[in-house]
Amino acid sequence: MIDSHCHLADETFAADLEEVVRRAQDAGVERALIILEAGNPKEAAQAERVEQLWPGVRFSIGVHPHQAHEFADDPERAAAAVRDQWAATPSARAVGEIGLDYHYDYSPRDVQHGVFRAQLRVALELDRPVVIHTREADEDTIAILHEEGGGRLRGVLHCFTGTPALRDAGLELGFYISLAGILTFPKAADLRDTARAVPLDRLLTETDCPFLAPVPYRGKRNEPAYVARVIGALAEMHQTPAGEVARRTTSNFHTLFRP
Fold first, then answer.
1. Are 209 and 6 in contact (CB under 8 A)?
2. In whole angstroms, what is the distance from residue 249 CA to residue 202 CA?
3. What is the set of domains in the chain, with CATH numbers?
4. What is the pLDDT of residues 98-152, one digit of tens each?
5. Of 4, 8, 106, 257, which one is least surrounded by beta carbons within 10 A?
6. Euclidean distance between the first and the last CA atom of the chain, given in angstroms as a whole number
7. 175: helix, strand or coil
8. Nearest CA-CA partner of 2 in 255, 254, 258
């Protein structure tokens, strides 16, 4: 199994990181892609610690739309921050998470656009995939991916909770769709219906931990070991053995991120 999106460098894991890693490995999680905020020295330090404990982890580096306002004067500074940290992180494999968030609007939308575009150009320069965050901004997200990528970008729509239209647009771009613990929530029937139409060869699994713990851990801190619950939900939805879903999604991860 793979946790294709987690935040193990977050301070919430600092006190018991060794136990969290052990539980993930005991559960059969082969790798995890850890998301790092570009230019955050605390996360960078904990990332080194995680990699010492779990050499199989890989990293994705980016400026989240919530932090885009920090680069309002010059979006290219965000791109430079990603480039600099990428050069110092041999296990980096992707640019992200990046994108647009119109739900909270912590950053002005025009600033989000500029920072997003600048980082997409970095991904093209590095020839690496992107990890996309989009919330209530689907049309603009897809439009910018088309405008900046021209079919050359590859990546994943992370923690997918979107509409069938977003699903189809992402698949048309050649992107993968990544599903998290929300899939197990009782009120997520619409998401399950939408996700059921995603072919197994385009699916990834994630926890987005420490957020969004799946049933039966909902309300608690999430962690990579719980990605098994997402695998189980997908197996039920696709009427496919969990082991086969784990194998297919693991293969997808290796194809996209080349770990």
1. yes
2. 8
3. 63-222+229-257 (3.20.20.140)
4. 999 999 999 999 999 999 999 999 999 999 999 999 999 999 999 999 999 988 9
5. 106
6. 14
7. coil
8. 254
